[in-house]
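Q: Hi! First time asking for a complex rather than a single chain. Here are the components, and I think there are two in total. Is that enough to go on?
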Amino acid sequence: MTSPTESPRAQWERAFNASPSRDAEFTTLSGIPLDPVYGPEDGEFPGQYPYTRGPYASMYRSRLWTMRMFAGFGTADDTNWRFKEIIRAGGTGLSTAFDMPTLLGLDSDDPMSLGEVGRCGVAVDTLADMEDLYAGIDLGEITTSMTINSPAAVIFAMFVAQAEKAGVSRARLGGTLQNDILKEYQAQKEFVFPPRQSMRLVRDTIDFTAAEMPRWNSVSISGYHIREAGSTAVEELAFTLANGFAYVELALAAGLDIDTFAPRLSFFFNAHIDFFEEIAKYRAARRIWARWMKDRYGATDPRSMQCRFHTQTAGVSLTAQQPEVNIARTAIEALAGVLGGTQSLHTNSMDEALALPTEKAARIALRTQQVIAHETNTAHVADPLGGSWYVESLTDEVERQAEEIFAHLDALGDGSMLEGAIKGIEENWFQGRISDSAYDLERRMNAGQRITVGVNAFTEGNEEAQIQLLRITNEDEQRQRKRLDAVRADRNSRQVEEVLERLRVEAADPEINLMPTLIDAANAYVSIGEMMGTMAGVFGRHVEVPSI
Amino acid sequence: MAGERILVAKVGLDGHDRGVKVVARILRDAGYEVIYTGLFQTPETVAAAAVDEDADAIGLSMLSGAHMTLAPLVVEAVRARGADIPVILGGTVPDHDLDDLTAAGIAAVLTPGTTAEDIVAEVQRVLDASGVH
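A: Yes, that's all I need. Here is the structure of the assembled complex.
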């Protein structure tokens, strides 16, 4: 209950007092007591619309961010072992990296998969792999994130099927499906079907989770890859939120009520090296999302307006030269994420400009988060930079520039952000802007206007021998193919044909939600390539027109 | 240099195209004629395009770790067509792979952090060595 006479501070205090407190001493190192937040009586406080200062009243006083380390390589067994290492080392969430064939919906024995199996992530062909991947991990307790987009519905079906086989009902599963196909066409380029057909699958997953999985984040709307592909901070923010508006309009068009699905949309941002610009970006993201959700889309549940996000430090900021220096870069970037109020965080390992991380490098990256969380006291006070003339002004400017981009997309889509996003992709508008920004940055670096330590300055030490790197052999690829052969030999082929035929028929009818049939297919040990191939027969395949 | 044709390509499933596009623009600005294949090519399609386009060099961009498998296959596919077009590899290539790549016929490897100036110099060196004028 809010009383109209109550000041913002008094309202915040009530909300704060109703929140749990984690067990820590909230003082400076010298013993000066710290308030949970600072600000004027009538200012904006965390947990208050438009949430510039954070989605929750108590922020890290109740709970630290989730230390969610992204991992995946080789076969499901290899990655299961790494997951258990992460949990033992104090990681508090799981995040699954799939290999390239899986990301593109191909089986490990597809000719295009040659040389790619298990390299950039874990290979998952069938439910059997999914069973091994999470074996011995209680998915009713720990939350799981899966970085998968084009085949998101298929992998999600396998995930739900394996959890239910392990005795965890789908309603208890907590986690996040990346499932953000728009940024694939714009930036990451792991697409299979054309945009409109892909969006139908996104709709099906939003609809399915809204009805059956209250703890599941259906889409993690991702700026990370947009930034990594070369965009500026403003473009990252604006393209990501614009994609978010597109998913909202997609679900509204499917007849869903905004407050049934919007609370389960989450975001994923980059933490690049420009410290204050990143913090301003996170603050602006929360404010813009809240305003648009309330004013344009008519949300009434505060949770629909709260932009919650995961952060990952910037892979592109890492250098192959003097890789140990990357630990410092990552620490600074991670701190920006924390001061910006992230809900979860992945810190990159120092060796990732060259290979997937070794266990030691990954452990140092996690330790970096633990230093920030437990030694620096930076998590004691919410939005510590709120009220800084610099950060407030930068927040306003980032927001203003983002609004210009929204206005462009709104016009492009004749008043529909959904159409604007799709047309922007079809007309190569996003792709062109990203390439231009990437080249602009490169030019400035080559002209010496921007210094990167170890690359175009301070190069003493570059001649030292390379650090120990993780090596993935071709044996994993062989093992995975044999495993897939064995699963195929073992399953009921009549059942497989039957469910694939059903999938083909249902894919052709856009009114039908494909999730139940995909779950049946997963349970019949139908492979990802078989499911995706069947749908591609109906949906077609997307081909990007190459442009420099 | 004057207008030599360079085919830049993405082989395999790797969608990271920031590097290939930046390098393509660097080479274009340096006066080369640059042709970009687009994503998801196979060694065969790259070799065929290089021969059809009469390319003087091929630049492969690989960041998925599949370079040890796919880059040598591109060299083989080019040679199988009776062509002698040098293949340059750029991307996340660890030092421990360099000798094997040279042995497989890769003409040069450009690793992360290579400056625009060095990219152009290295490409020109490869072109000169292969006798293109």
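A: The mean pLDDT of chain A is 96. Let me know if you'd like any chain examined more closely.
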